[in-house]
Design brief:
Blueprint: H1 3-15, E1 43-44, E2 47-50, H2 54-66, E3 72-75, E4 87-90, E5 93-96, E6 102-103, H3 107-115, E7 120-121, H4 125-133, E8 137-140, E9 143-146, H5 170-175, H6 200-206, H7 211-218, H8 231-240, E10 248-251, H9 257-265, E11 276-281, E12 286-290, E13 295-298, E14 300-303, H10 307-311, E15 314-316, H11 321-328, E16 335-342, E17 356-358, E18 364-369, E19 375-383, H12 384-390, H13 395-409, E20 417-424, H14 443-449, E21 457-459, H15 470-498
Parallel strand pairs: 1-13, 2-3, 2-14, 8-17, 11-15, 14-21
Antiparallel strand pairs: 4-5, 6-10, 7-10, 8-9, 11-12, 12-13, 16-19, 16-20, 17-18, 18-19
Helix pairs in contact: 1-15, 2-9, 2-15
Length: about 500
């Protein structure tokens, strides 16, 4: 979403007249549900928001601000707010185990954060260069070398254009820059681009990348597999990176500070432990049923659940088959991150860069510096099939496995690390993955049906926005849901006035 479009939506949200509190379900005059969902007495609200990630919380905040008298209730299956924005403390450090980056073009995020008292830190040009253009090591067949030596190394099996590109940069070289036919993110679904809605592996092969190079690209790529994601989806995501300032900031107290600050502004505390199992629509209200039998009722509902958990919710009446299919086929990338504390600078023993790309096992390793540019943490990042394989172990086993694998590549690391945290997003029952992917051949239908309102039910979440990434997409979706509800209530008021 461009900044101009965001401002237009924000103006619409604040300018749209809403129904008076007494015209909604304000706690009196709410008749009993005629459905058979659950047995407990329903708790009335004016708006229900399902999911306390930043998308749902942003929608709730905007809905309260539109009409300070309305009762907005947020239901959350887990025991914390933030969803995939998750910050932890371990080993004397506070760090993110989920979303981390605040893009320079994250207009909504950068506007919301100071408003709720959250600080954003932008890196120096030197830090940016170190992060995105700094030295790296490459590990192939058990041997580790400096990436700068890759082109002339005997380990390099490639020829031609492929030989000159280090493995970590192969996929971005093949899908970014001039190789990307998506030049305008707002036109990514243009008919002329539909031919790119095929498996990314096939798309790369058609552009004369060798099978060996494609297999190399698949290692560490943030997808479940190059055969499982649409090339058009990948090109769409790459096109989003072209817009606006390219700096990447972070939140001073971790990203979870933002949803916590937004939740603290709400009039009603978030209801935790409310795992939604059923949504029943009636002529003038929606009943939401939790797995423990609790029930809530409101004229409108915002569903801000990731596709996996959403697919487990029963609806009455059922959504159109196309909409169910769009939810069911929207996989989220399995990502498992292991955070290690270095007990000594073991990487100095072999003189190779700390950051690594490896042709298997732990896949990617990044050094995370503190404010004084000293490495305080190592991030082991495993994606897709690699993550799915290690997710068969419990967290403690995964941590020990990562330490063993690291020591196998760099013997000086043996006994030189401490496990701080293990976070498996693929195994998280309330997320079921980290990044929403679009399956091959499904781009147009996914865009059409993912966020299509279903009667009195509206949808939000990072996966429902297609022109911004990450946190920005989540905020944009919450704003869109609030605008939809404002427009629906305005139409209802106009109908009542003319009756």
């Amino acid at each position: 979403m461009q900044r101009r479009r965001f401002l237009q939506m924000l103006a619409a949200a604040s300018a749209t007249p809403l129904l008076l509190q007494g015209c909604g379900w304000g706690g009196t005059g709410a008749g009993p549900s005629t459905g058979d969902a659950g047995t407990a007495e329903a708790i009335d609200a004016d708006i229900l928001v399902l999911g306390a990630g930043i998308a749902g919380l942003h929608a709730a905040m905007l809905l309260e601000e539109q009409n300070p008298g309305r009762r907005v209730v947020v239901l959350e299956a887990g025991q914390r707010v933030g969803g995939r924005m998750h910050t932890v403390e371990a080993g004397g450090q506070r760090f993110d185990v989920g979303a981390t980056d605040i893009g320079g073009n994250y207009w909504m995020t950068r506007g919301l954060a100071p408003r709720v008292g959250v600080s954003i830190l932008d890196p120096t040009p030197e830090a940016m260069a170190a992060r995105f253009g700094g030295p790296s090591a490459v590990g192939v067949s058990g041997t580790l070398i400096n990436a700068r030596d890759w082109a002339g190394s005997a380990l390099n099996p490639f020829s031609g254009r492929e030989r000159a590109i280090a493995p970590p940069a192969l996929l971005s070289a093949a899908t970014g820059g001039e190789a990307n036919p998506v030049t305008n993110i707002n036109e990514w679904l243009a008919p002329a681009l539909a031919a790119h809605d095929i498996p990314l592996r096939d798309w790369l092969a058609a552009r004369d990348w060798s099978t060996a190079a494609i297999d190399t690209m698949d290692v560490g790529a943030t997808y479940n597999g190059l055969d499982q994601v649409s090339a058009l989806d990948v090109l769409r995501r790459n096109a989003m990176l072209r817009r606006g300032p390219q700096s990447v900031g972070s939140m001073a107290d971790g990203t979870q500070a933002l949803p916590e600050a937004v939740a603290a502004r709400l009039k009603q505390p978030v209801e935790f432990g409310a795992q939604v199992s059923e949504i029943v629509q009636h002529d003038d209200n929606v009943v939401v049923v939790a797995a423990d039998g609790r029930r809530w009722r409101a004229p409108r509902v915002v569903v801000a659940l990731p596709p996996g958990p959403l697919g487990k919710v029963r609806f009455s009446p059922e959504p159109p088959a196309e909409q169910r299919k769009a939810w069911a086929e929207r996989a989220l990338t399995a990502v498992t991150a292991i955070h290690l504390k270095p007990l000594k600078p073991f990487w100095e023993a072999d003189g190779l860069p700390l950051n690594m790309w490896l042709d298997g096992s732990i896949e990617r390793v990044f050094g995370v510096p503190d404010a004084n540019n000293r490495i305080e943490r190592l991030l082991v990042w495993v994606n897709g099939r690699g993550a799915q394989a290690i997710d068969q172990m419990d967290d403690s086993e995964i941590g020990r496995w990562a330490q063993r694998e690291l020591a196998g590549w760099r013997p000086a690391a043996d006994g030189a690390t401490e496990v701080l945290a293990v976070r498996s997003w693929g195994r998280d029952p309330y997320a079921m993955g980290a990044f929403a992917e679009i399956a091959p051949g499904r781009c147009a239908d996914t865009a059409q049906w993912t966020a299509q309102p279903l009667g009195r039910v509206h949808f939000a979440g990072e996966h429902t926005s297609f022109d911004q990434p990450g946190i920005e997409a989540a905020l944009a979706s919450g704003l869109r849901a609030a605008v939809e509800i404002a427009a629906a209530e305005k139409d209802a008021a106009r109908t009542d006035a003319s009756a």
